[in-house]
């Protein structure tokens, strides 16, 4: 796991340019927007007269990386690609979009070269690929008789080949696998990418985000999600190896001080999310509003870790006892509450037998950090 994901281990800050940087996407009077203009993959010179290179230059001066959003598979019919590359498009009944046929080798090679050259010319470090369409009907309606499923196979093979090309051409690159939020979390995409926006589920709803972390951490630690509020319960629900901050800093209810506190906490806790993961509460009914959810993250390298606990809004019990893992029975551990700074000491054996966590109020959270003393 460490070797496979080594390119992600020391990722610096990333400046991310989202959808809508291309031509026609800003023509509001013509009812054009980011979604109905995909396929026009040229920089809008009215808004970016020098292209994206001046932006990437400034990003690099700040010591950060530059990532840009694309959605190359979905092609609006009246876009430039839709008109000029129609021979490479698959059609389906009842839709205003084409599907760029990644199973067509000529089309695939052209796409590889086009996106690769675009990234190089504009100083783009990281590539973000979205995917916002139903796709099975395109494959089914274009399969030859007796060849059901072959279009899907060839398309997905082409997708992996496209990503492999980008990673060969840009060895330090990262591919951010968005796909409408988590629609392509398979083992082959996991070998090539990381979903920095793992879900389009109700933005900012903390219980769902807690549940995503609980489940995905079992097999896919390198994920990210958004956070819209700075209260501890909501913010900590979004903790992981990456976090996308969606705060509206101009909103009167926003607190810049609280934002700074959240960012500091994320940076301090982030390394633990690359470590060993132990769920401490059951997966049964884990989406319910009347339960505790608790998990442990442990770093064998220095025998430290964290315990993250949530008492949800309708939970009537103010305490829960959990059994920690990965601790040495005869060792002594110092545990510190991040909120109160209160510390206490227990043996590994005692922590394995049961640690009682207490939260007076529903919809609250706690984080204990621990370290081995001897």
Automatic annotation (TrEMBL):
Gene3D superfamilies reported for this sequence: Aldolase class I
Entry keywords, A to Z: Glycosidase, Hydrolase
One short Pfam family name for this protein?
A: Melibiase
Give this protein's Gene Ontology molecular function annotations: alpha-galactosidase activity
Task: Please tell me whether the keyword Transport is annotated for this protein.
Answer: no
* Keyword Membrane included in the entry's annotation: no
Q: What does the entry give for GO biological process?
A: carbohydrate catabolic process
**What EC number(s) are associated with this protein in UniProt?**
3.2.1.22
Q: What InterPro entries does UniProt report for this protein, alphabetically?
A: Aldolase_TIM (IPR013785), Alpha-glycosidase_related (IPR050985), GH (IPR017853), Glyco_hydro_36 (IPR002252)
Top-level division of the source organism's lineage: Bacteria
Q: What class of enzyme is it?
A: hydrolase
Q: How is this protein named in the record?
A: Putative alpha-galactosidase C
List the source organism: Petrimonas mucosa
């Amino acid at each position: 796991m460490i070797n496979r994901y080594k390119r992600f281990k020391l990722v610096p800050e990333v400046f991310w340019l989202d959808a809508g940087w291309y031509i026609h996407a800003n023509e509001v009077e013509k009812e054009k927007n980011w979604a109905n203009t995909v396929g026009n993959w040229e920089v809008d010179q009215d808004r970016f007269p020098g292209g994206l290179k001046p932006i990437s230059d400034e990003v690099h001066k700040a010591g950060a990386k530059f990532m840009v959003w694309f959605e190359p598979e979905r092609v609006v019919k009246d876009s430039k690609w839709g008109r000029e590359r129609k021979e490479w498009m698959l059609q389906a009944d009842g839709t205003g979009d084409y599907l760029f046929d990644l199973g067509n080798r000529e089309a695939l090679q052209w796409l590889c070269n086009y996106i690769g050259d675009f990234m190089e010319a504009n100083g783009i470090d990281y590539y973000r690929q979205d995917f916002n369409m139903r796709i099975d009907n395109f494959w089914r309606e274009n399969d030859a008789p007796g060849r059901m499923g072959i279009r899907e196979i060839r398309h997905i093979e082409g997708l992996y080949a496209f990503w492999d090309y980008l990673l060969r051409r840009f060895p330090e690159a990262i591919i951010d696998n968005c796909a409408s939020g988590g629609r392509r979390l398979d083992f082959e995409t996991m070998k090539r990418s990381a979903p920095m926006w793992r879900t389009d589920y109700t933005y900012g709803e903390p219980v769902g985000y807690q549940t995503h972390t609980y489940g995905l951490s079992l097999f896919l630690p390198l994920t990210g999600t958004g956070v819209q509020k700075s209260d501890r319960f909501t913010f900590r629900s979004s903790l992981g190896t990456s976090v996308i901050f969606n705060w509206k800093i101009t909103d009167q209810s926003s607190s810049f001080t609280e934002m700074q506190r959240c960012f500091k906490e994320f940076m301090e806790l982030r390394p633990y999310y690359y470590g060993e993961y132990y769920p401490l509460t059951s997966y049964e009914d884990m989406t319910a509003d009347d339960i505790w959810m608790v998990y442990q993250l442990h770093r064998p390298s220095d025998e430290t870790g964290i315990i993250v606990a949530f008492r949800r809004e309708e939970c009537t019990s103010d305490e829960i006892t959990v059994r920690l893992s990965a601790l040495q029975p005869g060792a002594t551990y110092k545990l510190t509450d991040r909120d109160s700074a209160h510390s206490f000491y227990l043996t590994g054996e005692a922590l394995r037998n049961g640690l009682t966590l207490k939260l007076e109020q529903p919809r609250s959270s706690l984080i204990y950090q621990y370290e081995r003393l001897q």
